[in-house]
Amino acid sequence: MDNKLKFYKEEDNFIQCQLCPHNCKLKENQFGICGLRTVKNNLPVAINYGEVTSANVDPIEKKPLFHFKPGKDILSVGTYGCNMKCSFCQNYEISQNKPSSEFIDIDKLIKLIISIPNNVGIAFTYNEPFMWYEYIYDVAKRIKEYDKNISVVLVSNGYVNKEPLKKILPFIDAMNIDLKGFTNRYYNDICKAKIEPVLETIKMASEQTHVEITTLMVSDENDSVEEIVEIAKFIASIDKNIPLHLSRYFPKYKMKNPPTLVENIMKAKEEASKYLNYIYVGNISGVDNNTYCPNCNYNLITRDIYSTNIHFHGDKCPNCKEYINIVF
Ligand code: SF4
């Protein structure tokens, strides 16, 4: 077990954690903002190494990833802690608290991954995976040594420094990254973070791995059509084939705003579709979340809550031969 931090700097009378943009200064037995990293006996360590609080086999669409291994399942695991403090957190029980956990060593985890039928790999999700960096790095590296075809997925807030991101990306097959809003005001006030590092993560990750973006539209906070259009324009400046998931907010944790109006989300989807080829909506039943060819509108994948029906394979539309950004 190697719970020693992989990114830190020793100063005269403190140790600086360099994993995420908070760059916390740590002293003996003092914790950083995430509540997970500290100094014990002069060594900087993460207390959640290998500690699992949640493990489920989920459809990969639930991450959400709609353009990566569609129709498959993925073992989904999480630990506890987070480096953001979003007042609407949908998983605050594990992100902002320390629930009971079980240590799972890497060999046991790999055995579990390969024993599950229809399973494409492992998704680190439920809480912020970069807060589990030391363990995830070791797991991902070992998985790729064992079998390159086992997928490693991160579902992340994207709040990580460039060096740690660069080091882990070669072992990552897909990411869903939250872009929680498009203003520093929102990131500062609601999430206690900054937007710029998240935008950098999206740019860097998109160059090396499959990326999809999720924006939780919170009523009266970030649910204006204008803000979603700004998000769409930013994503399009990288690649208009990156899928965007617009998710409906419901009151949770400290945020008491009413649920986001469905018509706001559908209007935002309509306007953002002028810039991006694939926009989906989450937490709303009975809507069309199929994948259509952006050129000829051929129905490539039909989705409902319970099933995914794939009408093509490869990377071209069977009708018009347009390139389609889906990893099978
Ligand atoms: S990972 Fe934790 S301790 Fe390290 S800089 Fe980020 S919030 Fe601070």
Task: Give your account of this protein's structure.
This protein has 8 helices and 18 strands. By secondary structure, it is of the alpha/beta class. The protein has 2 domains: 39 residues, no CATH class; 239 residues, Alpha-Beta Barrel (TIM Barrel). β10, α3 and β11 form a beta-alpha-beta unit. The mean pLDDT is 96. Bound molecules: iron/sulfur cluster.
How much β-strand is present in the residues? 15-25%
CATH H level of the largest domain: which superfamily?
Answer: Aldolase class I
Q: Between the first and last Cα atoms, what is the distance in angstroms?
A: 34 Å
Number of domains: 2
* Overall pLDDT confidence: 96
The strand line-up of the biggest sheet is 7-8-10-11-12-13-14-15
What would you call the shape? globular
Task: Produce a short descriptive summary.
Helices cover 25% and strands 23% of the residues.
Question: Helix and strand layout, with pairings?
Answer:
Blueprint: E1 8-10, E2 15-17, E3 25-26, E4 37-40, E5 43-46, E6 51-52, E7 54-59, E8 73-78, H1 92-95, E9 102-103, H2 106-115, E10 119-124, H3 133-146, E11 151-156, H4 162-168, E12 174-178, H5 184-191, H6 196-208, E13 210-217, H7 225-238, E14 244-248, H8 262-272, E15 279-282, E16 291-292, E17 299-303, E18 308-310
Parallel strand pairs: 8-10, 10-11, 11-12, 12-13, 13-14, 14-15
Antiparallel strand pairs: 1-2, 2-3, 4-5, 6-9, 7-8, 16-17, 17-18
Helix pairs in contact: 7-8
The structure holds iron/sulfur cluster.
Iron/sulfur cluster binds at residues 17, 19-20, 22-24, 32-34, 36-37, 83.
